[in-house]
Design a protein that fits this description.
Elements: H1 2-16, H2 20-38, H3 48-65, H4 74-98, H5 100-104, E1 111-115, E2 119-122, H6 130-154, H7 157-166, H8 172-179, H9 183-207, H10 224-232
Antiparallel strand pairs: 1-2
Length: about 240
Amino acid sequence: MADYDQILKYLVRKAKAGDDRAFKEIIKILDSDLKKISNKYYIVGSDDNDVLQECRIGVWKAIKDFDENGGMTFKNFSVNLCVKRHLITAMSHANTQKFKLQNDAVSLSTPISQNDEDGVQTYADYIPDPSADLLNQYIIQEEFNTNLELIAEKLTDLEASIFNQYAYNSSYKDIAKALDVKPKTVDNALMRIRKKSSETYQHYLLNHTFIKYGVSTFGYGVSTFSIYEDITMGICSNLTV
């Protein structure tokens, strides 16, 4: 036993001096003891190998702090004192991280400002209402579909065919070839479609309000240009006339 302690003391001196092989030899000697200890501890978010690695870190700390004249053998000092102390510290740190999100969380009802006009404002007041945007998008889509139907009523058979082809991003030449007409005919038809679309939508803006929603379309900032562009550029590819 005395020889065993002397061997460990010798290896500790060399490990302190930076000898990696000495450190590895110490780990090899204490390996069975370290595995027994690691099996008794659990660190949040870690597996068995992680816990064993923490034990080895504890041994390294023991090497740095070991005093040959302190009255303890290195094995007792490292395994029963330093390693266990390091594991407890690691467990405590892991538990702190586990509840970090909860500890750092802020209630949505926490007041962040106060004034005479609006009173107390909280974080919840600054969260956008997704349903408001959903209604906006629904109304815009309703306008879009309504205008497509109105335009479709004004198109000739040729214009409707060209519009359907154009909706698939076909070129003038491709459309002309598919419909057996001249490219100029396609160009002239698209100009008429744009004119009819513009007139239809302008008339719609002057006369149409979504009564059933109790909201004017102007209140939602609907862009005449954007819807007109969508219609005339053939965004709706499923138009049938």
